[in-house]
Design a protein that fits this description.
The protein is an all-alpha fold. The chain contains seven helices and no strands. Helix 3 packs across helix 5, helix 4 crosses helix 5 and helix 5 packs across helix 6.
Length: 139
């Protein structure tokens, strides 16, 4: 019998401050990342957490996973939980897709870079900057 995971809905997390043991500072960063990606692609934040395979929603979700990984020290499992209950393998696959698409598609790379720059600027303005430069250089 397989276990199914039902992530805690956003409204419950907001009111009860339940975030899987993730520090509040990291949660603030993930909210900033969500906000920037959703504004960039003009989608509601709830769309990032949908398990839909449409390209219009998958790309923003993949980029959110990538940015969570880049700007936080969260594990694949916690990234998946925060973005709607995805498994760690889905997060790993999303990271590989973003890296491969950025290598082979200059337009996609420009989008990724633009979003990254916006996130860094926002984090700098809110004094929440934490980037693992080693991770960025090894890509």
């Amino acid at each position: 019998m397989t276990k199914t995971f039902n992530p805690i809905p956003e409204e419950i997390r907001e009111t009860h401050n339940v975030y899987f043991g993730i520090p509040e500072l990291v949660i603030k960063k993930t909210k900033i990342i969500d906000d920037i990606i959703c504004r960039y692609f003009n989608i509601p934040q709830s769309a990032l957490r949908l398990k839909v395979r449409s390209w219009e929603l998958s790309i923003p979700r993949f980029l959110a996973m990538y940015m969570y990984y880049t700007y936080t020290n969260l594990s694949f499992t916690k990234i998946g939980l925060l973005l709607g209950g995805f498994k760690s393998g889905s997060v790993s696959s999303a990271l590989r897709r973003v890296q491969n698409n950025a290598k082979h598609d200059s337009e996609f790379n420009d989008i990724k870079t633009d979003i990254s720059n916006r996130i860094e600027a926002k984090l700098r303005n809110t004094e929440l900057v934490w980037i693992d430069r080693e991770k960025l250089e090894n890509r």
